[in-house]
Design a protein that fits this description.
There is one protein chain. Helices cover 29% and strands 27% of the residues. With 421 residues, the protein is an alpha+beta fold. It has 4 domains: 2-90, Rossmann fold (3-Layer(aba) Sandwich), CATH 3.40.50; 122-177, ATP-grasp fold, A domain (Dna Ligase, domain 1); 188-309, D-amino Acid Aminotransferase, Chain A, domain 1 (2-Layer Sandwich); 324-418, Phosphoribosylglycinamide synthetase, C-terminal domain (Glycinamide Ribonucleotide Synthetase, Chain A, domain 4, Alpha-Beta Complex), CATH 3.90.600.10.
Length: 421
């Protein structure tokens, strides 16, 4: 099968890595790591017409979209209009991630467990509401903010400052014109990803992301500093409960709204004392969760994604290995704020049978691999247990260097504690 993957980050490298094991893969635009295993095409993910034209010209049999922005912008609609198969939801369906107000209302209507919330598009009204809200409080930009638009404010002054940054100063651009203010949920987080064909869902193995920048979950939110899979906190019983209480009513609500959802539904869950509650929905694979989940998949990923795009997941079930995988992100100094680019990277940037180095923010410059983003590499270790996977990831990181490089050193500790190790 000829497959086009859209995107250039670590998630896209993981998708290309898995798909290219059995199929011919192209990637637009790709990165230095992706270029080793696929044919990179210099087309911007925002150039929807260009991507569709390329897919038609090259007779691409399936296009897989990594980042959320092209999905929200309607790439699936463009491809469908040209008779091209694409794995990913339509623009209407992608509102699930592109418009948190839409997602929260849908959860409310369908009785999907989530945090209590209020929606605001007026700064003064939002500030008045904040003055009486219990602390800590969660403030979210309603639109797309690259995974950094949610802030947990511990103090009243901090909450008001965050609101000012989002709604007045435009920290996240149009994404912050409207905000969601919701109660803080205590518990352990987990990521549960489902592949959907409009009516059915095939759930992938669970994972756990680490959003804060620093060890001990300190510092600002990032796009994710590491992940491991499976997540011990998500038992088989809990997984079934999430499918019944979250995914099935969500798909039913979307169908009720006339939306045929074909693609990924990512559910960020908080496992509270009152049961699992949804923190957020995304319309694409998680990053860096994908880098921990896909190394455990034994099925042909392309066949699963194709079945979703064709609306026929019936009788298809993903097969998983008994291994564990853990990804640790190596980031540029200064991330998630300003950082240098073009810094040479040394060391093993490919990996071995039980270590995969996924490139997130890299490019080739005069035949040398250099940094081109905040999250530069995702180093994934694979082992018979979580501790073994953790050890392999961190050992591989010891042999990689670039100026300003840093990474969290506590990825996986929560899972090990839950396992009693």
């Amino acid at each position: 099968m000829k497959i086009l993957v859209v995107g250039k980050g670590g998630r896209e490298h993981a998708l290309v890595w898995k798909l290219s094991q059995l199929h011919k893969v192209f990637c637009a635009p790709g990165n230095a790591g992706i270029g080793r295993i696929a044919e990179c095409v210099d087309i911007n993910p925002a150039d929807i017409a260009g991507l569709a034209g390329y897919a038609a010209q090259e007779r691409i049999e399936l296009t897989v979209v990594g980042p959320e922005a092209p999905l929200v912008a309607g790439i699936a609609d463009e491809f469908q209009g040209r008779g091209l198969l694409l794995f990913g939801p339509s623009a209407r369906a992608a509102r699930l991630e592109g418009d948190k107000s839409f997602a929260k209302r849908l959860m409310q209507e369908q009785g999907i467990p989530t945090a209590r919330f209020e929606l605001f598009d007026n700064h003064d009204k939002a500030k008045d509401y904040l003055s009486t809200h219990e602390l800590p409080v969660v403030i979210k930009a309603s639109g797309l903010a690259a995974g950094k638009g949610a802030v947990i404010a511990q103090e009243r002054d901090e909450a008001e400052a965050v609101l000012e940054q989002m709604m007045v100063e435009g920290r996240f651009g149009e994404a912050g014109n409207s905000v969601v203010i919701e109660e803080f949920l205590a518990g352990e987080e987990a990521s549960v990803i489902g592949l959907c064909d409009g009516t059915r869902v095939e759930m992938l193995v669970s994972s756990q992301d680490h959003k804060p920048l620093l060890d001990g979950d300190k510092g600002p939110n990032t796009g994710g500093m590491g992940a491991y899979a499976p997540a011990p906190v998500v038992t088989s019983e809990l997984e079934s409960r999430i499918e019944e209480a979250v995914f099935q009513p969500l798909l039913a609500g979307l169908r009720k709204a006339g939306i045929d959802y074909r693609g990924v539904i990512y559910a960020g869950m908080m496992l509270t004392e009152d049961g699992p509650k949804v923190l957020e929905f995304n319309c694409r694979f998680g990053d860096p969760e994908t880098q921990a989940v896909l190394p455990l998949l034994e099925s042909d990923l392309a066949e699963l994604l194709l079945a979703c795009a064709q609306g026929d997941l019936a009788d298809r079930q993903a097969r998983w290995s008994n291994n564990w995988a853990m990804c640790v992100v190596a980031a540029s100094g200064g991330y998630p704020d300003s950082y240098k680019k073009g810094i040479p990277i040394s060391g093993d940037l490919v990996g071995t049978d039980d270590v995969v180095v996924f490139h997130a923010g890299t490019r080739l410059e005069e035949e040398k691999v250099v940094t081109s983003g905040g999250r530069v590499l995702g180093v994934t270790g694979i082992g018979k247990g979580l501790r073994q996977a953790q050890g392999k990831a961190y050992k591989a990181l010891e042999g990689i260097r670039f100026e300003g490089m840093f990474f969290r050193r506590d990825i996986g500790l929560r899972g090990l504690e839950r396992l009693g190790l």
